[in-house]
Amino acid sequence: MLICQHDASAGSDDIPVLAWQQAIEAEPIANPVVRAPTQPAYIIYTSGSTGTPKGVVISHRGALNTCCDINTRYQVGPHDRVLALSALHFDLSVYDIFGVLRAGGALVMVMENQRRDPHAWCELIQRHQVTLWNSVPALFDMLLTWCEGFADATPENLRAVMLSGDWIGLDLPARYRAFRPQGQFIAMGGATEASIWSNACEIHDVPAHWRSIPYGFPLTNQRYRVVDEQGRDCPDWGAG
């Protein structure tokens, strides 16, 4: 356990404790542990389609591939800040931490009592000039609903919005662009096993005949297959 105060306790003698002040003053390890790209980076739990929680092991290579791809696609860099709404046991937080920080950006943290408070979100977005939003659709809907009711609460600083983890309402792109006309609205998805996300689709206009927001296209080094009931690849434009 890494602690920030010398007098802090882990609560158990069985847990190794390292104070960060001591860590940065210590000598480098003579024989550092070598990590291969295929080795586990973290284990995260998901219920998936079964409803039964299961631990998913994600490799360094998988998580890094996703973070690098998203940063490149949407020009994430040192000028960006993300509002870190997702809990650590939800894999959207993996991108908030390792993706944005890797690009030189910053995380704007929320207090526990602010996690479901759109008024607090608006204040943080404005105070810290937050540029990126990354959450499930319901939370962004909450933000827009609050902003639509208060003239002084606008998410115009958000240059890019990334939504995933649930069904995305057809009304959300237009409601967002009422505040930020040139903003990027990105629908994303994919199984936890595929390292946060597998696909992305930048949405511009929503045609009247759309019944849902498209799932998008595979991310770099990932692919999708549309198969029939026997597991055979379907032809182009064929339903599977």
UniProtKB/TrEMBL annotation:
Signal peptide: none annotated. GO terms for cellular component: cytoplasm. It comes from the Bacteria. Transmembrane segments: none annotated. GO terms for molecular function: ligase activity, forming carbon-sulfur bonds; phosphopantetheine binding. Pfam families: AMP-binding. Residues 30-240 form the AMP-dependent synthetase/ligase domain. It is an enzyme of class 6 (ligase). Its EC number is 6.3.2.-. Keywords: Ligase. GO terms for biological process: amino acid activation for nonribosomal peptide biosynthetic process; secondary metabolite biosynthetic process. The keyword Coiled coil does not apply. This is Irp2. It comes from Klebsiella pneumoniae. The gene is mbtB_2.
